[in-house]
Amino acid sequence: MTLPEDIAALAVETIEALKAAGLTIATAESCTGGLIAGALTSVSGSSDVVYGGYVTYANEAKIAMIGVPFGLLRQYGAVSEEVAMAMADGALTAAGTHIAVAVTGIAGPTGGTADKPVGLVHFAVATEDGTTHFRKIFSGNRDEVRHATVVQALKLVLKAAKA
Q1: Measured at the alpha carbon of residue 67, what is the angle toward residues 61 and 70, in degrees to the nearest 5?
Q2: Res 12: pLDDT
Q3: Cβ burial, residue 33 (10 Å; 0-12/13-18/19+)
Q4: How would you write 79-138 as a 3-class SS string?
Q5: How confident is the model at residue 1 (pLDDT cuts 50, 70, 90)?
Q6: Where do the DSSP E strands lie in 46-86?
Q7: How far is residue 109's CA from residue 124's CA, in Å, rounded to a whole number?
Q8: In which region does residue 7 sit, left (phi positive, over 0), alpha (psi from -120 to 50) or beta (all else)?
Q9: CA-CA-CA-CA torsion sign (102, 5, 141, 61)
Q10: CB of 91 within 8 A of CB of 17?
Q11: Which of 26, 61, 89, 140 has the most CB atoms less than 10 A away?
Q12: Could you report the per-residue pLDDT of 102-145, keeping only the tens digit for each?
């Protein structure tokens, strides 16, 4: 499978940065369904730094696989800052890696509301130093939103690896 050029280049750069820093990574993905882990593992030698990924598309998977509290899902919804941060923290703990990246959003074309429109994605990156959140609303169709989400997630991981 050939990745889009921008994602392929970012994946290589991210893997190289993780290796140079001696860091390992896990992903926790909802709206991207494993595309971030897929991009990272498309790079030869990525097994040195990629632990694996959790595709937690359903709320039940978020709870069972990475320990997202049901109360957060009930109170804030799956597409929220609170859940994205809990996903990243949960993946970091479950995998025992140095970095975990999490994404949860609404890729569309359905599922959006006035408060949470199609294209809204919450990102979180967890490290031993804490967890950061990033929120973005992307435009475009489902594939374009998912593509942009993978690009943004890789950029956030790259930044964390170089910190």
Answers
A1: 75
A2: 98
A3: middle
A4: CCHHHHHHHHHHHHHHHCCCEEEEEEECCCCCCCCCCCCCCEEEEEEEECCEEEEEEEEC
A5: confident
A6: 50-55
A7: 23
A8: alpha
A9: negative
A10: no
A11: 26
A12: 999 999 999 999 999 999 999 999 999 999 999 999 999 999 99
Cα–Cα distance between 4 and 36 in angstroms, integer? 13
Selecting from 3.90.950.20, 3.20.20.70, 1.10.3210.10, 3.40.50.11810, what CATH number does the domain 5-162 have?
3.90.950.20
Side chain identity at residue 132, one-letter code = T
d(CA 21, CA 96): 16
Residues 6+ apart with CB under 8 A from 155: 10
Please give the biggest Cα pair distance in the chain: 43
Q: Which residues pair with 83 in a beta bridge?
A: none
Confidence (pTM): 0.97
**What are the residue ranges spanned by the domains of the chain?**
5-162
